[in-house]
Batch of 3 targets.
Target 1
Amino acid sequence: MHELSLYRATLGAEFDRLALVLQRHYDIESGHSVVIEGELTAWNRFPMLRLFAPFLPKQQKNVPVTATLRSVHDRVGRVCLEWTREFSYKSGLVKSVSIQEPPPSPLVVPSILEKFVQRYRPNVGLTLMLDPSTDGGALATVSVGPQYVITGPLMRRLPGLARLRVDAAETAINATEFYTDTAVSHPLLGRLFGYSGRLHLRS
């Protein structure tokens, strides 16, 4: 039986309305991967946060970036998506890893759970809504629903003031390129960090 990719399974018929580059970006069969490259402008209003989360981006324009998306299975056999992001600064590589999977409690809106990995283990989980534009030319990803602190097998819900706001969008340019824009904010501190720029799928 053919396994559906995470994004195709989550969006259902709406996935087929997405622009070709967005479908190629996310419709990854089990055991396969996709590599994305380009340059992004990264910003970070609170560089001190990197003391606790060294995978956060440093502020700089035209940072070479490579992202590898790989289809994987979790312990119970569900299809998930592993992200490895690498920002190449002159001072060294800033790398982050996250795992996207079906949420523990499905929401009414199409959603996934993204777990951010630090020291080889997930430590924070954010529920994200997938929201395609009417014409399919863009895919927005917005934080919605529960967020978690993860300790081993335990997931505890974060209270309101500890929750983050994620606003991300990818907009198709052509069959191999898209524009990405991501911003992460806090209810009291405001905008924290993010990045934007043009990326392309490696052929």
Target 2
Amino acid sequence: MTKLKDTILDELQYTSQDLLIRNKSILDSTTKMLDSSARISRTLSKAATQCGCIKIYAEKQQIPKLTENLEEMQSHMQTHIEGALCDNCRELLEKDIGRNLFYLSAICNTLDLNLYDIIIKELKRLKLLGKYSLR
């Protein structure tokens, strides 16, 4: 395994390696990560439909036909969210995202990948392409 740097991500990766016992198979880890992704979506939906702390108004993004630059285009893009997460919904969403990160780090462990290194490489790609990565 690559020499891990002294970061919180590395600590998460080490910890997930130590704690993952029953679901050590790559198939278990990937399906658990997919399940945790679905839970993130479900928790977000519940924040809108049951709690009501946020409202989601989704519609087609309105982009003027003639935009002079990407900053102008970005200013027209909407998140479709109004309001803010209440403390309870925020806590639930953070828990679901944390679980997702746990299984992501487990997948990295199984494949001998370093999550910190992956994030650094992606950050470099994003900085290199800047707004032209168009994500």
Target 3
Amino acid sequence: MDILLVEDDPSVAASVIDGLENASMIVTHVSNGKDAISAAATTNPDLILLDLGLPDMDGQDVCRIIRETSSIPIIVLSARSEEIDRVLALEFGADDYMVKPFGMRELVARIRAVGRRSNQAESTATTSVQVIGPLSIDRRTQRVRVNGEDVYLTPKEFDLLAHLATDPGAVYRRNDIMSEVWDTNWYGTTKTVDAHVAALRKKLGNQDWIEAVRGVGFRLGITDS
């Protein structure tokens, strides 16, 4: 597995590189946001480990820029432990978030879990395109369009949308969504579902696409736009 590590602290980078190489992963290391954006586009890694406190730009901006053109899974590694930082990172396109300091065994497990979910989404995708009003979902290519225009989603955002689209109009409970989309190895809370729903609504261009059912969960609606 090819990993792009974006970390400006040499000691942290060295420790992570050693741990990942011991887990038979190949690591490319950059120490600033500009190089991270370039490396993501040119080396096409399997996954990105992204620090937020970079010397030239905020890691959340790096995440947002990469996500505009790429669906490479991103795990944020940051000393920022506030809930707002987690939520913003997820809204900008991160697939997971770990607070420093962290254990290498957990990091490796998170990497493999995110990679496994991404691969499963690709391998189980069907060749048919599901059309719901102006929304089309191609599970084979993981392409989403609204009114013929491409909508760029993170792997987790796509998984969430595809799951809700399995039965449009049906209500899906938060815990069931966590189990099916994030699987039982997820260490976070159901608030991450809300963050991904908010990001999906914004990208789809209409809040009505995903309806919140108070005290239960969410369902995919059908709109004209």
